Amino acid sequence: MNFKLDWIKLGSSVIVGVLIGLFYSNSKMVFGGYEGLWYSFLPAFLLSSLVVYAVWSFFDK
Questions:
Q1: Which H/E stretch holds residue 59?
Q2: CA neighbor of 50 nearest in space, from 10, 4, 5
Q3: pLDDT string in tens for the chain (61-residue length)
Q4: Three-state secondary structure string covering 5-19
């Protein structure tokens, strides 16, 4: 299996993940109380980065 990492996709996915994670953690602070970085920002960041990278890889064939 020849796996080559595309740095443009990875960088864009991380940027989108950071933006979505910051928006999600900010909305949690405003509406539901602050739960900490690990419970608000990190799951949203990881999930959105993975989804963006997977969708982009799926449609970029």
A1: helix 37-59
A2: 10
A3: 455 778 888 899 999 999 988 888 877 666 666 666 677 788 889 999 999 999 988 888 7
A4: CCHHHHHHHHHHHHH
pTM of the model: 0.75
The domain spans of the chain are: 7-59
Long-range contacts from 11-18, C-beta under 8 angstroms, 24+ separation = 12/52, 12/56, 13/49, 13/50, 13/52, 13/53, 13/56, 14/49, 16/48, 16/49, 16/52, 17/44, 17/45, 17/46, 17/48, 17/49, 17/52, 18/45
DSSP per-residue string spanning 46-57: HHHHHHHHHHHH
> For residues 38 and 2, what is the distance between their CA atoms, to the nearest angstrom?
34
